[in-house]
Write a structure and sequence with these properties.
By secondary structure, this protein is of the alpha+beta class. The protein folds into 3 domains: 211 residues, 3-Layer(aba) Sandwich (Rossmann fold), CATH 3.40.50; 69 residues, 2-Layer Sandwich (Alpha-Beta Plaits); 249 residues, no CATH class. 43% of the residues lie in helices and 15% in strands. It has 22 helices and 21 strands. It has a 6-stranded mixed β-sheet with strand order 5-6-7-3-8-9, with helices on both faces. Strands 11-12-10-13 form a 4-stranded antiparallel β-sheet. Strands 19-14-21-20 form a 4-stranded antiparallel β-sheet, with no helix packed on it. Strand 20 and strand 21 form a beta hairpin. The protein is elongated. Belongs to the ABC transporter superfamily. GO terms for molecular function: ATP binding; ATP hydrolysis activity. Keywords: ATP-binding, Membrane, Nucleotide-binding, Transmembrane, Transmembrane helix, Transport. It comes from Streptomyces sedi. This is ATP-binding cassette domain-containing protein.
Length: 699
Amino acid sequence: MIQTIGLTSASRRGRPLAVDDLTFEAGAGEVTVLLGPSGAGKSTALRLMLQLAPGRGVALFRGRSLSRMPQPQREIGTLLGDVPGHPRRSAVGHLRMLAAAAGVPAGRADEVLEVVGLTGLAGQRLGRFSRGMDRRLGLAAALLGDPHTLVLDDPESGLSPRERGWAQGLLRGYAEQGGTVLMTATDAMEAARVADRVVSVDGGRLVADQRIADFRRTRLRPRVAVRSPHAERLATVLQHRLRATAPVEVVREAGNRLSVYGSDLATVGEIAHQHRIVVHQLADEIGDAGDRAPIGPLRRADGRPDDAGGAHRGQEPKTVVLVPRVEASTSAVTEVGGAEETVPAGEGEVAPSEELEGGTATTRPRTAAPVAVTASAVIGSGAGSSRAPTGTAVDTLPPPARERLASAPAARDGAGPESGAGALAGGGRVTVRPGLPPALPALPPPGPGWPLRYELRRWSGTGTAWWVMALALFAGLVVAVALAWTGSPPPERLLSGWAEPLPLPPAAAAAGVLGALAFGQEFRFPALAHSSRQVPRRLSLLAGKLAVCGVAALLLCAAAIAVNSAALTLLLGTRGPTPESWPSAFESTAALSVGCAWAGLLAAGVFRSALVGVGAVAAVPLALAPALRMVPDSPIGRELEGLPERLTALTTLPFASLLDRWLTASVRLAAQPLGWALALALAALLCGYALVGLRRVRR
């Protein structure tokens, strides 16, 4: 369940608060709708609950705040606006990327696509999705981690009537299996079709908190809609004529429209005819009468229920069907929301000697099989069961969720006591109060490898990285051929395609661009921002990005050398570079490429922009390295005059041959001004990244 206490948004320079002291609850196994007009503060309230907006108050999800959840995406599914995915990424690629971040198998993406009916569009790019497809994909992303709670911001906005019916069936089925659904809506009629409880909000304040039966009785009353050019005169006549006969309410709507409550169509039409008042429209409607229900007092400020039994005041009791003892040759049949389910004998039997503690019946299976009678086997006068649509999406939920929720006990923990001895009614029925859902099984953490899986799927999900690498290979090939025809440069520069005027080899420049895109795309298309408070800068995610970018830079260097060598051999024959020069060429550019990739990654992570990351990579050879070349003329430079020789002496230590070659190449790079500039830039950016991360932790 969800408990919000005193949600208040931050002040906005004298303007009224978007949310002002909002307190409500959303029960487990129910659909709770935040209802209000546009600008009422519904979306801001959801963002306050998810700690996406500054403010005050407490929001508890099953008794815990969001900051105390190690994996929020495994417990809370969110849909706040459009899906923040890259327009060139496919639907299944986007979900598999999120599955890696949530620590669930990649096959889970195919399951939720089947649930939302997008299997045939799994390979479609997100940029081509319609509004309805985008909403379906958002619901699939919300269900990906198998959460116990869904928080949805106007999920039916912009949908066609058929898509709205599908979404309502899916949410009803999710709630009937024990999940908690909190959603916003602006239309009272749409809210009445799906909700178990309606929390009305206006101006950021709580207006009414009603069960669906009370909401329908007080808000959705029959009315006679009248449109007349003499609306004011007709309203006066109706009030005068009908005041003595029946409690009639005449409400003046916008323009020349009237709404008459408490009368019928014939009476209103006859009165208008008798007074010769022209009527352009006369029709029966079900109208929204406005919030008129009084708000109950807040008994406690800590979010706990008022009574010791854990019952929630104001909730209607539900009736749970208990399966009586049957013979081995018979079977028990339970009715769930209009559908019949056969329970084999021996499962979910209730022995006569089993206790009914406080009116709560406990069913214990004789075998280790899951209990057949679940908390979803609820019938009676509750509004939730009477509104479950036929063919509801209960059976279309993912198999893990169905199996987990099907094993729930018939009587939930924390049910309140019932008055009267022995709460058994006729036909084996027991009336219980709704309580908390059964405890969900503990899910294992994602593991240390999730950043690598996430980054690999993010990196390979779009064609941007491949185009950058192809362009770098082509540019390096053109430069290498031009160098070969114009002179005899060193083999290292010839194989890497690094001409003298260029500040960086093409492979290193492309590696810097790939590193900048690794974090730049995270901020432009924040796929992880809804499952956590903002785009995460966690150390594990940074390590995964550094590893993937480093490996990509090394592969790009190797590919550039192989392509250039093959092309030069075809063009020059024996005059081209020999294979013996390949290791030295790779070692001379690999360290520089990895450093550029990491510099672009860290700069984009600190400044939240891929363009700034590319600029930081370009600034290393163009601005920082020339500045460091002037250092030898200063007193500090004279102290560091023998640094290259001292660094070279480190390579005389007894290392393995491969490690020795890498150390020699790194020392050779560090002994140059470009290497100093790159090392200094990496150190400064790493410190900046740490400071930004610590600042967000304090917030």
